[in-house]
């Protein structure tokens, strides 16, 4: 497992231990109360927390094994999703408390997600694959509205949209350009893809991956030589690699 993925996995483990410590503190505060009802409540909470801890710990272990073996563990998919849902905000909080930049944590999360998607090795028919990219990849001076219809792109070559259109055509995939999370969710609901290759910044990618739930999403980070949300760029070879990972299991 490379260093980038170790960061997020390490923060997941730290988050689990943090929550365990918090639960132990609550136990200590309640356990020394003499009322019998407190003891009953404490026992119920302890069983529930113990069960949650075991499931989440199993999810973290499954994440590590899936990455190391490059092979999914289908029976633990639910536990892995629960581990991410429960511990992701705690991991980000702990990482920031330790002086780790939020973007670095999110990049690690995206790398872990991509490894888990690849580990499933599920073949997705190209026509049921969606390429979802941000409008800031389009040249800022371009007058053509491609969020309404990607066919409005004139393929002038001033930005990478032309290359993405050609890539989508080559694989017979659906290409959509979104202005934000609301439009992206609308496209997902309309197209109903079985898999997504998404291009965005760290924040939007991590939020989008969590929003899609069980739908496999491979994230590709854009580059921002002119600052955020303005004439951004993306490495076409990385996008094609992500497409091939979903349609051919490579």
Structure overview:
The protein has 250 residues and is α/β, with parallel strands linked by helices. The chain has two domains: 3-119, no CATH class; 122-247, 3-Layer(aba) Sandwich (Rossmann fold), CATH 3.40.50. Helices cover 59% and strands 9% of the residues. It contains eight helices and four strands, in the order H-H-H-H-E-H-E-H-E-H-E-H. It has helices at residues 3-31, 36-69, 77-97, 102-120, 161-171, 181-191, 202-211, 236-247, and strands spanning 129-134, 174-178, 195-200, 217-221. It has a four-stranded parallel beta sheet with strand order 2-1-3-4, sandwiched between helices. Helix 5 (161-171) links the parallel strand 1 (129-134) and strand 2. The model has no long low-confidence stretch (mean pLDDT 89).
Low-confidence stretches: none
Order of helices and strands: HHHHEHEHEHEH
Through-space gap between termini: 18 Å
Mean pLDDT over all positions: 89
How is the biggest beta sheet arranged?
4 strands, parallel
Number of strands: 4
| Name of the level-1 CATH class of the largest domain | Alpha Beta
User: Major sheet: order of its strands?
Assistant: 2-1-3-4
Radius of gyration: 21 Å
The assembly state of the depicted protein chains is single chain
What is the domain total for the residues?
Answer: 2
């Amino acid at each position: 497992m490379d260093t980038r993925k170790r960061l997020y996995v390490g923060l997941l483990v730290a988050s689990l231990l943090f929550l365990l410590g918090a639960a132990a503190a609550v136990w200590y505060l309640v356990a020394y109360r003499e009322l019998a009802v407190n003891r009953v409540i404490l026992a119920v909470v302890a069983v529930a927390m113990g069960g949650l801890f075991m499931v989440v710990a199993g999810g973290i272990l499954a994440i590590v094994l899936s990455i190391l073996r490059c092979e999914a563990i289908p029976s633990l998919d639910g536990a892995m999703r629960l581990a991410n849902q429960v511990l992701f905000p705690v991991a980000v909080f702990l990482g920031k408390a330790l002086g780790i930049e939020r973007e670095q944590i999110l990049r690690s999360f995206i790398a872990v997600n991509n490894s888990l998607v690849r580990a499933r090795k599920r073949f997705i028919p190209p026509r049921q694959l969606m390429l979802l990219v941000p409008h800031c990849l389009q040249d800022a001076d371009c007058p053509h509205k491609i969020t309404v219809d990607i066919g409005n792109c004139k393929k002038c070559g001033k930005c990478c949209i032309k290359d993405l259109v050609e890539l989508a055509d080559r694989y017979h995939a659906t290409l959509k350009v979104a202005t934000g999370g609301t439009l992206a969710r609308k496209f997902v609901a309309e197209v109903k893809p079985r898999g997504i290759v998404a291009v965005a910044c760290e924040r939007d990618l991590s939020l989008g991956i969590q929003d899609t739930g069980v739908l496999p999403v491979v994230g590709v980070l854009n580059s921002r030589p002119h600052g955020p949300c303005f004439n951004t760029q993306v490495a076409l070879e990385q996008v094609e690699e992500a497409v091939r990972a979903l349609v051919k299991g490579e």
